[in-house]
Amino acid sequence: MQSAVSVKDLKIAYGDHTVIEKLSIDIAPREFLVLLGPSGCGKSTLLNAIAGLQDITAGEIWISGKNVSWEEPKDRGIGMVFQSYALYPRMSVRKNLSFGLRVAGLPKAEIEARVTRTAALLHLDKLLDRRPAELSGGQRQRVAIGRALVREVDVFLFDEPLSNLDAKLRNELRVEIKKLHQNLGNTMIYVTHDQVEALTLADRIAIMRDGVIQQLASPAEIYRRPANLFVAGFIGAPAMNFIEGRIEHGGGAPVFRSNGLAVDLSRYAFRTAAAEGPVTLGFRPEHLLVDGPASGLPTISGVVSVVEPMGSDAVVWFDWGDQSLSLRLMGDTALEPGCTLAAGLDVAKASFFGADGSRL
Ligand SMILES: Nc1ncnc2c1ncn2[C@@H]1O[C@H](COP(=O)(O)OP(=O)(O)OP(=O)(O)O)[C@@H](O)[C@H]1O
Ligand SMILES: [Mg+2]
């Protein structure tokens, strides 16, 4: 199948400062791809290169089977939504939505039909005669999304479209964007540094660091099987717990040892067979089970330092040696600071990372 968007060996440098060295990615038609990573990792640079707003140093950008590397943004068949919505303040919502189409010289009837369709999709029908100053932040961002949608193109690009909104609006609009994608079936590339947006919206997430894609996979795969320590620590709140130790093979069965903890890995030997010496064990807060010891899992015990109730669940922090580890409990908990707890580690769900940080 032909990719909707294909980035081939892309290099982008500002003078002698290289932001993206050699990046390739293929995005399928109808896919919702999220670019996720810390500030400055090159997400906007990559998106702008696809949009044609950023000159490329080397490589190619293909959209719908056509090499558009040197095409103008308006000729690439994309619609783009930015973080700052920058609407025309003196124009009504209707005029804001239709502006680009009028400039492009589309027939009046076609413009009207598209504005009506887009307004209905974004619940803007009753606001068409208002000016931006008479709208809430969320409504303004919907108009900004509408300006991209009226172009009725196959590929939409979003650069942190929700980060100027408060938490409640962000959640509402996030669900609307997901519905929009389900209804329209366009290809969407969406930049964010918010992992909740990434996990909830994406078909696939590309996690970037310093201009390099660290892992490209479904949200579930990235959460369950992070490719390296960076991805493991970046995704998940609270973050994955890490314990440094060694894998020893003495006497046959491999064992992970750290600070009095011994985890028998004989059932997981296929993953750790090649590893000997220093490794990092990673496990999420929900992989520690308080009824664990009874079920024969390796036990980690410590003294509770902080309990964070979160409504549907609670995060319990406890001291293990000189490290603070977190554990997630569903519902209410009787645990409080000072209590001793013993938790079983669900080894099957844990991750191991080698000395170079990559997943074993
Ligand atoms: N015009 C420029 N000249 C030189 N360096 C630049 C320029 N624009 C961006 N950069 C650098 O390129 C790198 C990537 O920037 P980019 O804006 O793509 O990051 P980002 O991942 O979108 O970050 P954020 O989450 O903060 O928006 C940064 O180190 C930035 O300083
Ligand atoms: Mg950016």
Layout of secondary structure:
Blueprint: E1 5-14, E2 17-27, E3 32-36, H1 43-51, E4 58-63, E5 66-67, E6 78-81, H2 93-103, H3 108-121, H4 137-149, E7 155-159, H5 167-184, E8 187-192, H6 195-201, E9 204-209, E10 212-217, H7 219-224, H8 229-234, E11 241-248, E12 255-258, E13 261-264, H9 269-272, E14 277-283, E15 288-289, E16 299-309, E17 313-320, E18 323-330, E19 340-345, E20 351-353
Parallel strand pairs: 3-8, 3-9, 6-7, 7-8
Antiparallel strand pairs: 1-2, 1-4, 4-5, 9-10, 11-12, 11-14, 12-13, 14-20, 15-19, 16-17, 16-19, 17-18
Helix pairs in contact: 2-3, 2-4
Adenosine-5'-triphosphate (ATP) binds next to β2 and α1.
Molecular structure report:
This protein is of the alpha+beta class and 360 residues long. The protein has two domains: 229 residues, Rossmann fold; 117 residues, Nucleic acid-binding proteins (OB fold (Dihydrolipoamide Acetyltransferase, E2P), Beta Barrel). It has nine helices and 20 strands. The strands form four sheets. Strands 6-7-8-3-9-10 form a six-stranded mixed beta sheet, with helices on both faces. The longest helix has 18 residues. It is elongated, with a radius of gyration of 25 Å. The two termini are 32 Å apart. The model has no long low-confidence stretch (mean pLDDT 91). The structure holds adenosine-5'-triphosphate and magnesium ion. The site of adenosine-5'-triphosphate has 12 residues, from strand 2 and helix 1.
